[in-house]
Design brief:
Helices cover 60% and strands 4% of the residues. The protein contains 4 helices and 2 strands. Keywords: Signal.
């Protein structure tokens, strides 16, 4: 057999292998699904942990996280007391975003 015949046979085998790979991938990923989808995993989960920790969260962050929002607004660079004083000066005379001194009757 000459060199050209060997090259043709090898190219047919490679082409056939690629075609089989394409067909296998189409079946696996489109019809059957990826193997990870069929893997069973068990997680340790306690659905009541949120109820037990809600008291601790309220103590730390306030009801609905008011204290957490205030801490975020004051920053984390050590100048929180300065910012708190500035905010108190800025908000003096305001109640809930409404300037009640200006609109008093």
């Amino acid at each position: 057999m000459n060199i050209l015949g060997k090259i043709i046979i090898v190219s047919l085998l490679v082409t056939n292998s690629c075609a089989l790979t394409v067909i296998r991938d189409l079946i696996q990923f489109n019809l059957v699904g990826h193997p990870v989808i069929h893997k069973t995993v068990d997680y340790v989960f306690d659905p009541d942990v949120g109820k037990r920790r809600s008291r601790q969260y309220r103590e730390l962050n306030g009801f609905h996280g008011e204290k957490a929002i205030e801490r975020l607004g004051l920053g984390i660079d050590g100048r929180d007391l300065e910012r708190l004083e500035q905010q108190r000066k800025r908000d003096e005379g305001q109640l809930g975003g409404i300037n009640y001194i200006k609109y008093q009757t």
